[in-house]
Task: structure prediction
Amino acid sequence: MEWVTLLHLPKPKMVATDVDGTLIDHDERVTARTKAAVDALIGDGVPFVLATGRPPRWIDPVVDGLGYAPLCVCGNGAVIYDSATDRVLASMTLDVATLSWIADLAEEALPGCGLAAERVGESAHDAVTPQFVSSPLYEHAWLNPDDTTVARHEVIDAPAIKMLIRLPGARSSDMRAVLAPLLGERADITYSTEHGLIELSAPGVTKASGLSIVAQRLGVEPANIVAFGDMPNDVPMLTMAGHGVAMANAHREAIAAADEVAESNADDGVARILERWWL
Result:
């Protein structure tokens, strides 16, 4: 796409962005420039939505950095969360029978893997619901201070918004290549890091499906959305939006799906694009 064409894109009626590797920098901060750009679009009455693999309980630091509490598509599209009221508005889960089937399938296809499940309650920090449970074999791909280790059968004994499968030393893309053909249409599979971690959701649940729910709620057509992302779990959202923007640091699949490539998350890539309309 030519720069002159990009320059004359109509002002979006909604902006949606991934968080890690996209909106925040390598120190997990919302920079002053990014905050200023988001402040400007919000001040102009344009909805700003977070669309992330993070669960609701990991949204607070982003809200603090923005100084604004947006509607959020969490868990790769499985949860619609209102951070302003701390309410889970909707959730789409894998049922127990499907979780059990996936667990057996994964352990056979990916020997040595560990299993975990992400659950959600009525709010981000719902104490009634153990929100992240993992089997003894599960090794985290990142620091996770709120994990609860349980017996393997307890990981799959309640509906979950995501099942996570971890195989240390493997590449996530290779794991997906092995497991995806075996899943058929019983679950959606994606990944947000190449460090041996794949994430499974209910069939048809992606960031695009979650963002579509929010867009309908706000009366915005997909063609009028600008979306930002950097990893394969962002691809459905980048392709459904009227203008999909991948970061310079993005995975090749995200770059291939995007209409444009911005500067990296470390170089205020999101802000630089938003400043076309909001200076």
The longest strand covers residues 87-91.
